[in-house]
């Protein structure tokens, strides 16, 4: 069985088409890697690229993309709805076919060290790669964002794993290994960001909500709508439909409705099948036996 690793780097640019094209071309130029998906958002001013490939190919692609972003993205002139601390904000490695989490941890450490040694961008290791439990959560690592990096790094608890001072224009990058994550956004029929933020606070685990759910409220200028922007870190334990229902209920309490939702990047099929089974009220449905695509794959 071939060893396949997924990498989903996030970049602090969602508006400049030339930069997005350069990143796409960089991803496609690395042997042993396939670019499966690209998503960019102007309001978030952020883009997400989904790549899969061999360990060697993914390692080279992750570094090459970080180098391109460092050359083309200047956070001193960046603004957007999504929190960020780096031109390349986060580089996660996810084990897929024939790969282990430990392989991805070691891969993240090699890439992190190389990013600092060659690009002089400091690196925080997060999730499974973190050196301490309090550094696992990406939100904690990124707290203070680009503007607060220099002061943050003076704190002994927050000295980067590689480097000790922010890059002048590229900030810092979080690199790590993790399980598959689903970026799931829900749009509301109101432009009031405060409502989305209130709902996000209600559902996210850190505020007493659902386990494996991270959420913030943002404003989408292009749609004149507020959005609950969600990351689901374990869809098996906390399914998408449970979060969707919770957001719908909280929205109704505030006199607003859901007008649509979206998945950014790729999603495991089972996360969507679980929601279909729930809403269609399918009895005794067995995805392994009854989903045509799975049977053909066998």
Give a description of the structure.
The structure is a single chain. The chain is of the alpha+beta class and 298 residues long. It folds into two domains: 5-177, Formiminotransferase, N-terminal subdomain (Formiminotransferase-cyclodeaminase, Chain B, domain 1, 2-Layer Sandwich); 182-297, Formiminotransferase, C-terminal subdomain (Alpha-Beta Plaits). It contains ten helices and eleven strands. The strands form two sheets. Strands 1, 2, 3, 4, 5, 6 and 7 form a seven-stranded mixed beta sheet that branches. Helix 6 packs across helix 7 (240-253). The radius of gyration is 19 Å and the shape is globular. The relative contact order is 0.12. The mean pLDDT is 95.
List the keywords.
Alpha-Beta Plaits; Formiminotransferase-cyclodeaminase, Chain B, domain 1; 298 residues; 2 domains; 4-stranded antiparallel sheet; alpha+beta; single chain
Topology record:
Blueprint: E1 5-7, E2 10-11, H1 17-28, E3 33-41, E4 46-53, H2 55-72, E5 88-95, H3 101-119, E6 123-127, H4 138-142, H5 149-152, E7 173-177, E8 182-188, H6 193-203, E9 213-220, E10 225-232, H7 240-253, E11 258-264, H8 269-280, H9 287-290, H10 292-297
Helix pairs in contact: 1-2, 2-3, 6-7
CATH fold-type name of the largest domain: Formiminotransferase-cyclodeaminase, Chain B, domain 1
Strand content: 15-25%
Task: Indicate how many domains the architecture comprises.
Answer: 2
By DSSP, the count of extended strands is 11
Class from secondary-structure proportions: alpha+beta
Biggest β-sheet strands, sense, barrel: 7 strands, mixed
Global mean pLDDT: 95
* Proportion of residues in helical segments: 25-40%
Distance linking N and C termini = 14 Å
Under the CATH scheme, which architecture of the largest domain would be assigned?
Answer: 2-Layer Sandwich
The CATH superfamily label of the largest domain reads Formiminotransferase, N-terminal subdomain
Helix and strand element order: EEHEEHEHEHHEEHEEHEHHH
Which segments are poorly predicted (pLDDT under 50) over 5 or more consecutive residues?
Answer: none
* Number of discrete helical segments: 10
Subunit arrangement of the protein: single chain
Give the C-level CATH assignment of the largest domain.
Alpha Beta
**Rounded Rg:** 19 Å
Shape: globular
